[in-house]
TrEMBL record, chains A, B:
Family from the record: Belongs to the NADH dehydrogenase family.
Domain FAD/NAD(P)-binding: 18-335
The protein's Enzyme Commission number: 1.6.5.9
All residue ranges annotated as the External alternative NADH-ubiquinone oxidoreductase-like C-terminal domain in the record: 359-413
Classification lineage: Bacteria, Pseudomonadati, Bacteroidota, Chitinophagia, Chitinophagales
Protein name as annotated: NADH:ubiquinone reductase (non-electrogenic)
Amino acid sequence: MEQMRQITLNIPPTTKPRVVIVGAGFGGLNAAKNLPDDKFQVVLFDKHNYHTFQPLLYQVASAALQPDAIAGPLRNLFHNTKDFHFRMLRVLSVDPLTNTINTSAGSLQYDYLILSSGAKTNYFGNENMQRFALPLKTIPDALNMRSHLMQIFEWASLNANPALKEHMLNIVLVGAGPTGVEMAGAFSELRRYVLPKDYPVLDFSKMKIYLLEGMDRVLPPMHPKSSARAQRYLEKMGVIIKLNAMVQDYDGETITLKNGEQIKSFFVVWSAGVMGEVLPGIPKEWTERGRILTDPFCRAIGSSNIFAIGDIALMKLEDYPRGHPGVAQPAIQMGKYVAKNLFALHRNETVKPFKYFDKGSLATVGRGKAVADLPGDIHLGGRLAWLIWLFVHVNFLVSFRNKLLVLANWAWNLFTFDKGNRLIIRPYIRKGDEKSKTVFAENQVGS
Amino acid sequence: MEQMRQITLNIPPTTKPRVVIVGAGFGGLNAAKNLPDDKFQVVLFDKHNYHTFQPLLYQVASAALQPDAIAGPLRNLFHNTKDFHFRMLRVLSVDPLTNTINTSAGSLQYDYLILSSGAKTNYFGNENMQRFALPLKTIPDALNMRSHLMQIFEWASLNANPALKEHMLNIVLVGAGPTGVEMAGAFSELRRYVLPKDYPVLDFSKMKIYLLEGMDRVLPPMHPKSSARAQRYLEKMGVIIKLNAMVQDYDGETITLKNGEQIKSFFVVWSAGVMGEVLPGIPKEWTERGRILTDPFCRAIGSSNIFAIGDIALMKLEDYPRGHPGVAQPAIQMGKYVAKNLFALHRNETVKPFKYFDKGSLATVGRGKAVADLPGDIHLGGRLAWLIWLFVHVNFLVSFRNKLLVLANWAWNLFTFDKGNRLIIRPYIRKGDEKSKTVFAENQVGS
């Protein structure tokens, strides 16, 4: 057996410059799609075989969409390109001196390297948070969250203790960025339209949805007008918003704030921060707080052929002294920019520096309720903002197939006020969660 | 914590007769839907919160359908019934003397008990088969199978050893009943239309699909004409059929037949047998080979108020000396029958014995290729049989929502020759599979 194993990357030799891309998020995907394969050999690495449309992950988590609707099989996207090579594997390290990237399936020389590995959840060192709270960065995360939520309601149906039953229904969302706000809205709609019909034995008027934010307003990256509007929508929908609220601890059942306040909940979502994870081998001087410092050409400072785009990149400009916002648009635009300029750079031709075109920010709170900051200091709310949100998101989904599925799901949800994907098909997983094990283990079903 | 836990079934007391149904498959679901809740209190137990449309599981496994399309959330189905109570839990045992059913959430008295827990995979004591082969009874099974298949292709792309690479692509399906035949067809279409585009580095002309059957023809329960026709279709599609082939062993890499022949494969599906699993507490005299013997009224012999329907039931009639076929129709008809007759039985009124109306059998092999045995000794093939199959399956899907999703998926597949659900979103699981761990573990990604 052992001698039969000959793991290899199996990338054909080439006379063209070879571009290796690490990560198939918005940045990597757009770089890969826009690099002409007659000029370059393009190699894409990712640990999944699909691209995740992250802005809609919360809809999978809240049972409005099925996972397949927001995932694009990567190999599908490159059926018509010849010198393109996707490999599903783990990238281990890079050696900038020898232009070598090392992976779980072997090493490869590159001419150009594009790092677009994105960001991961940042718990700011809070180990209990990491153990007990639910992250939302991947499709398995979203499926786990959906299953965990539904499982809690099933368990609550089987619990006779009024106190426990009441706080079993509570939801706590930490972080009122777009993800937190959109989840708060989605769960609030579930509570209003769906859950009372599903669980007649539970009293959902007792279910509390908390949205905690460390800053002094929701949607801190957006305009204060939009923040105020979103807050009004959420409060109307019965979401309890706590601003300037810092989380101190969570033991799987009780979350404690820095001011001493305690909230009981078995369902705590952590979307309060992300961090980059720099590939081993990248010199420390090139990085700052887990992100790779780049020049205005998306090139890692100190390197001539390594690029960083999207959340992993930190391009400090006058307009963006702390880098570009960690959303899809900068990643998409950087991906396209790098692809477009690589050929010129390769021939030592002059290229223009990257310029971010801010198309604005959107966040949806619920049916017919959204907020939009548009270029020209325009700040919209209500149905109009929601229609813009709908149009933009359907339009951005990577493949036609997904658009159809999303539309079918949403049309159904709109007409019926239902969310149809309330299946518990993942095992109940909160790693190391001994406490909830003792509460629930005897009734461990549904996986 | 401990004292806070008061697990209870939480079923309201009632003056109406209480019917407890164990299992929400075709039998249990149809019984539950047809029991009037003004005459009975209906309690339904299942370990999942959804009904699985088992005849289409192979389509999830072969990436043609997403799991949500063939699963109906159970609570959804009973929004408009008042004295209906679904509980997600494990049923532990029954005490026929005291009319008590014991579950992971407590015990409950019943007036009538309907056992419809279905069948589980039968490995006939072959422990290695159980360890290494993939079953297909549940949606998690189907998702695991789909992920495992796609993961094998990703791994094969990273393997340089020609011998290993070649046999890594092989698929072995054990059992040529409808599931085996339908999977063989589905995988053969994947091999022809989809995989070569996804994996240009792999040579799919070397990929072999084996269909092994212990009897002397495929689709043994169907008419010999249909068996011959299905075999012809499959062979034309390049499926290697081995009849009278008994499996002896499988070590995770090599499957050995009783005649000594060996086939190498990392992907072996076991659909060669099912068995019932009788609930502890049911007297042994009431059972035969894991099934509950019933009288012609679906009543467990020896009991006046316990019924068994579907795969778990064994009603020996002159026409069906070994019981009814283990497919959806007998379960559905028994479920409706029991529901209809329970009120009469309760009032000691005369009821007619159960009579199975054989609507015929269908199996699809691929695009425009199916076989159908219809009442009146009619045996169809080709496009007509396939249209019947399509109509019947869409029509039987439990909820409107699912019908829409299935249609959207199938329309896409038909027009594009694509199967769009090739995502690896489940961890790679073959329990206790040490050998493939050593082959693949270094590259464990995609989960």
